[in-house]
Design brief:
Elements: E1 9-11, E2 17-18, E3 23-24, E4 28-29, E5 45-49, E6 53-58, E7 61-66, E8 83-94, E9 98-103, E10 107-112, E11 127-136, E12 139-142, E13 146-151, E14 154-159, E15 174-183, E16 186-189, E17 193-198, E18 201-206, E19 221-230, E20 233-236, E21 240-245, E22 248-253, E23 270-275, E24 278-281, E25 285-290, E26 293-298, E27 313-322, E28 325-328, E29 332-337, E30 340-345, E31 360-365
Antiparallel strand pairs: 1-2, 1-31, 3-4, 5-6, 6-7, 7-8, 8-9, 9-10, 10-11, 12-13, 13-14, 14-15, 16-17, 17-18, 18-19, 20-21, 21-22, 22-23, 24-25, 25-26, 26-27, 28-29, 29-30, 30-31
Length: 369
């Protein structure tokens, strides 16, 4: 295994720059005379973050970083750098303090916090090692204390259900995976709500006190309900959400930090006017990719917008950075630039994977163990 001892930060100026290297898009990193730029090992992908931990895939196995409060890292070693768990998987997803993976055997495996039975492994005891459930899946998604999966085209769910967010009718917490009434191709989960794409149509379920379900009201739903919107991408924040419809970002829900990136009504999906290809939601912030450029909006107290300051943005802002992939966590963001992975935002538990703590308001290259 290899450890990168160099952390370089992308700051914003007239042209985005590294702390130690010029970032001349699209040419990438220029080496300084006395410091060799150390590229991250190829292959880290599918990064997903919970409250203070993250998972990713590299070389066909699950890697983890950050807080291990409930055993969610499922490995020994330093939590401030990315480390290999050795568990083979094709997809991984992080909840508040737990995680799911689609194992190489096709089954859902889970780890970490289990206070609401969200691991789907019977009982409510936390688990510090990845373990198999009885459900196979083609897609998984972790909410804060609940989980969703797609099995044979149908949406399944497990865990906390205090607002009906499992979409299984009622509000009873479920310790076992169960099937809902919806067929879907993708799910995105927030704090107490979720979105799903079904034949290009957006459905939502769960808590709706802030209009986050995008249904034009504030009534909670216990079953999946159509928003009437067509979309190519969905992203649920903690109490807000985004979709891409007609190649433009639409948003709904809680807007205290400006995370909707627009003014006006907040209980339905309305157009922000920002063209984009993909959209991603953190707890109270968002990212989008538009023509390969990274845009960000919303809460920025930890510098997670990557704009070299800690000021909230109430309108979408172009960071000037090129990125091919983006991954959003509670108060963090990861991007892939070339072969390298960079992170920004909250880092009290080392969840940025920089080998240290301390928040970052510019995207900084991660460290591997």
């Amino acid at each position: 295994m290899m450890k990168l001892m160099l952390s370089t930060a992308i700051a914003l100026a007239a042209t985005p720059v590294f702390a130690d290297f010029n970032l001349r898009t699209p040419l990438g990193v220029e080496e300084s005379p006395d410091i060799q730029a150390a590229p991250v090992p190829e292959g880290l992908s599918s990064i997903d973050c919970g409250i203070a931990h993250c998972y990713g895939l590299k070389g066909g196995t699950i890697w983890s970083v950050g807080s291990n409060s409930n055993g969610q890292l499922a490995r020994g070693g330093e939590g401030k750098v990315w480390g290999d768990t050795g568990v083979p998987a094709s997809q991984v997803s992080a909840g508040a303090n737990h995680g799911y993976a689609i194992h190489s055997n096709g089954r859902i495996w889970s780890v970490g916090d289990n206070q609401y039975g969200q691991l789907g492994r019977a009982g409510t005891t936390d688990q510090s090692a990845w373990g198999e459930t009885d459900l196979s899946a083609s897609f998984i998604e972790a909410g804060t204390y609940q989980g969703y999966a797609i099995n044979d085209g149908k949406v399944w769910s497990v865990g906390r259900n205090n607002y009906g967010q499992l979409g299984r009718s009622g509000t009873t917490t479920m310790h076992d995976w169960g099937q809902t009434n919806l067929s879907a191709s993708k799910i995105s989960a927030g704090y107490y709500h979720a979105y799903a794409l079904s034949n290009g149509e957006v459905f939502s379920v769960g808590y709706n006190g802030n209009g986050e379900l995008g249904l034009g009201d504030s009534l909670t739903r216990h079953t999946w309900t159509s928003t009437g919107m067509q979309a190519t991408d969905i992203a649920a924040g903690w109490q807000h959400g985004y979709i891409i419809s007609n190649n433009t970002i639409f948003s709904t829900g809680y807007n205290y930090h400006g995370q909707l990136g627009r003014t006006g009504l907040t209980n339905a999906f309305y157009d922000t006017g920002i063209p984009a290809d993909k959209v991603y939601a953190g707890a109270n912030h968002g990212y989008a990719l538009s023509g390969g450029k990274l845009w960000s909006v919303g809460y920025n107290a930890f510098g997670q917008l990557g704009l070299a300051d800690n000021t909230n943005r109430t309108m979408w802002e172009n960071t000037g950075l090129d990125a091919s992939y983006v991954y959003a966590g509670r108060n963090v963001g990861y991007i892939r630039h070339g072969l390298n992975i960079f992170a920004a935002g909250e880092n009290g538990s080392g969840q940025l994977g920089l080998g240290s703590t301390g928040d970052r308001n510019a995207f900084t290259q991660v460290v591997y163990d």
